[in-house]
Amino acid sequence: MRFIQTFQLYPFLDTVVSLAAAFVLGTLIGAERQYRQRTAGLRTNVLVAVGAAAFVDLGMRIAGSVEAVRVISYVVSGVGFLGAGVIMKEGMNVRGLNTAATLWCSAAVGACTGADMLAEGALLTVLIIAGNTLLRPLVNAINRIPINEAASEATYEVRLSVDPAATPLARERLVDALEAAQYPVSDVQVIEHGDGPVELVAILVSTAVSADELDAVVARLQRQPGVVHANWEVSTRD
């Protein structure tokens, strides 16, 4: 059998260590993604890390480090196509970029372990997890900072259709609800439609917006007395 002729114990044990390290490090990265219910969770990140490690290790076993470098270049481009599959566009929002980037980094971890650079792979894993966890509060803090309106590319509006008699109170509650959610209002427009409901349009100060948070605010406003309909919109400039 060809296997008996080519099998070498010590190189095989080296492969076992490389793939096992990729499995463990990929599990650490994937566990954080799974906890946050991302599209690519535990199993996907583990498979990407182990697969990258296997290809790089195979290249090194067969043709040495020069061929391994060539394999790594193909791994990078191949995982790029895989990451594109988790990126989705929903209306004006693009979701999945962070997940795709994490998959790309998981492949880098696998490539490190496949090249017998376990310490580097472990360091990269720590940095990836830190980027996905420790930087989250900083991102939220930055998103809350109002930005220059001239530089803003999006305008967010919260719209209420209310009974004419409830207009003053509804306007006050609209501003209070948005301010309580830390979305300052730059202006509130009152649009009358004859004898029909009055439309209140709250224009937010230019800042980053969480769709889930704004949905929750709109849902609370919808339940207020006199409110016929509530929604929010976003428009962009070229």
From TrEMBL:
Residues 19-139 form the MgtC/SapB/SrpB/YhiD N-terminal domain. It is found in: Cell inner membrane; Cell membrane. It holds the Pfam family MgtC. Its main location: membrane. Keywords: Cell inner membrane, Cell membrane, Membrane, Transmembrane, Transmembrane helix. The chain crosses the membrane at residues 12-30, 42-62, 68-88. PANTHER family: PROTEIN MGTC. Virulence factor required for growth in low Mg(2+) medium and for intramacrophage survival. May be involved in regulating membrane potential by activating Na(+)/K(+)-ATPase. This is Protein MgtC. The lineage of its organism: Bacteria, Pseudomonadati, Pseudomonadota, Gammaproteobacteria, Lysobacterales.
